[in-house]
């Protein structure tokens, strides 16, 4: 048992170091930029196009903060303005798809998938869903009633306080990562060496096959669905190295998880905003399933065509 704990601890520390090297500098930089003219300038550039997705110009503030920081920053910005229920719902759906863009996409890219590919999917899903909801939903015109949410944002005087807050935020971010990843890796090491992961993968296999993936991708999907994309990336890295997850399956797993990750936390967090959260959950889940199955189908057709062409070419050369 001690040996399993030690091996799991080593794996957890290694993954924490790998991801921490990404999370710390990005968190520090973005937190500092929040107190400079950079983010306000970005907001000014985005505001004119808000009308295309049924939002007022002020909606650019939570979108920029939510995408550059996290969902909590986006929600804090939402409750600072008077939005309609429809606007809040659209913002919630968009932020569910594309929050914490820099960190989560960069961490996921450590698996070997392009940052631009991951970010492009997340932003595309956010825009397409917002336009669709705006066109199809005619209700939600009433004023949104927010619950008790703390929106306090301390005043910082001078660069020393800004740098200190940025450093503290980055340290806390890495510490939170370690508190989740290290115990998770220890548990995963125990389950792997005791054979429980094989049993679990077999139980989850029908779902992964439905999505077009092999059953050894199941733990990656479960980790991302439950604890999120950034934290689940630790398990993804281990899965690629130890479980033999193929490049194709990892791409499909990430396509699914960028659409639908941390489903419990990321859904419940929007309850105080007074919007229907069940449709929010269903939109993410259905989108993830349909998108992944579609990409898997197209990928399989392309692979089959390549194999046929290669077979024909081989037959021709042997004649």
Automatic annotation (TrEMBL):
Matches recorded under Pfam families: Gate (PF07670)
Annotated InterPro entries: Gate_dom
Nucleoside transporter/FeoB GTPase Gate domain location: 17-99, 176-264
Membrane-spanning parts: 12-33, 115-137, 170-191, 219-240, 252-275, 281-299
Protein origin, superkingdom: Bacteria
Alphabetical UniProt keywords: Membrane, Transmembrane, Transmembrane helix
Keyword Transmembrane: yes
Signal peptide location: none
Protein name (database record): Nucleoside recognition
């Amino acid at each position: 048992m001690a040996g399993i704990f030690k091996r799991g601890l080593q794996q957890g520390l290694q993954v924490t170091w790998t991801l921490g090297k990404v999370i710390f500098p990005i968190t520090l930089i973005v937190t500092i930029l929040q107190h400079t003219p950079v983010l306000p300038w970005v907001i000014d550039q985005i505001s004119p196009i808000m009308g295309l997705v049924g939002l007022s110009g002020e909606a650019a503030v939570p979108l920029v903060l939510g995408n550059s920081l996290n969902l909590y920053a986006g929600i804090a910005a939402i409750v600072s303005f008077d939005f309609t229920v429809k606007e809040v719902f659209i913002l919630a759906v968009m932020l569910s798809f594309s929050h914490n863009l820099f960190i989560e996409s960069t961490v996921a890219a450590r698996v070997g998938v392009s940052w631009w590919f991951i970010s492009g999917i997340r932003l595309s899903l956010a825009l397409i869903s917002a336009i669709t909801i705006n066109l199809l939903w005619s209700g939600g015109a009433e004023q949104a009633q927010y619950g008790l949410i703390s929106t306090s944002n301390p005043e910082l005087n001078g660069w020393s306080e800004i740098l200190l807050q940025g450093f503290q935020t980055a340290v806390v971010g890495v510490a939170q990562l370690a508190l989740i990843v290290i115990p998770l890796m220890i548990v995963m090491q125990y389950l792997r060496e005791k054979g429980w992961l094989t049993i679990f993968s077999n139980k989850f296999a029908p779902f992964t096959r439905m999505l077009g993936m092999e059953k050894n991708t199941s733990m990656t999907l479960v980790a991302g669905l439950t604890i999120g994309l950034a934290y689940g990336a630790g398990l993804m890295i281990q899965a690629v190295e130890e479980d033999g997850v193929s490049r194709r399956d990892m791409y499909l797993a990430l396509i699914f998880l960028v659409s639908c990750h941390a489903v419990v936390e990321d859904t419940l967090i929007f309850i105080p905003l007074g919007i229907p959260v069940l449709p929010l959950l269903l939109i993410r889940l259905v989108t993830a399933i349909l998108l992944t199955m579609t990409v898997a189908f197209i990928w399989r057709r392309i692979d089959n065509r390549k194999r046929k062409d290669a077979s024909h070419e081989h037959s021709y050369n042997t004649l």
